[in-house]
Predict the 3D structure of the following.
Amino acid sequence: MKKYIAIIMTIAILCLAAVGGALPAAADTPPVITVTSTEPLLIGGVVTTQFPASVAPIPSSASSTPSITSARGNATVLPAGATASNSSSITLTAAGTYSSVWAHEILVVVNSVVASLQQSEWLPYGQPYKLSAPPQDTQGGNVEYDFQKWDGGQTPFTADNTIIPFQPMTVTALYTRNFLLTIVTPDGITALGGGWYNAGTNVVLQTPKDVYTDTTQDARQDFSGWESIGATPVVLSSPSAAVTTIAVNGPYVLQAIITSSTWSRPPVRSVF
């Protein structure tokens, strides 16, 4: 009987020793934190590329939090773990597995002479994106742009277009540029050639060489030349010709210079 009591006491002592040794060890074991990702992450200031990665817990009282961001330029990281989050920075204090969910994005640049269309934007990979260009854009009242086409996309010859970004791309809305040619003349004088023209168009200017201003034809107005009076100067090859040709390369304003003259009739002599 004494032998059995001794054996039981020995087992009890061993159990207490085992329990007493295990409790401190469990208290010293940090929580297990694992991070997985398909893209490089910046975790606690260190670039991490090998996953899954074990991360030491960061106390909630720490002055800084681990910044988890992309090492690439065409994706947005949305870390998620024990508690889902859409923040790019989380504090790893709780045990668990944290997996970063990535949205693949493509940089698309839109170019155009129309300022309202110019943009650069990250777009979801492989998802259709609609572009819309104004049919016409007028700048300053004397320069006009008419939509011509896009240089890419599914419907490039219409103002409303669709692109599907699979790789970084630049798409341009092409416009034809038109200029207003203004002709200024004195009252009663009509000149031909004014109006809207595509850039580079050759235009014939014409004004009467002389205009009589009374029924007796004793007074008239004579054309003496063309003068550039607009903010955009133009040089004429034949400025003194009543009929001349210019290339419209800007919003030109031309004035027809007219001088007045009077014809004095000789006195009437009486013959007896």
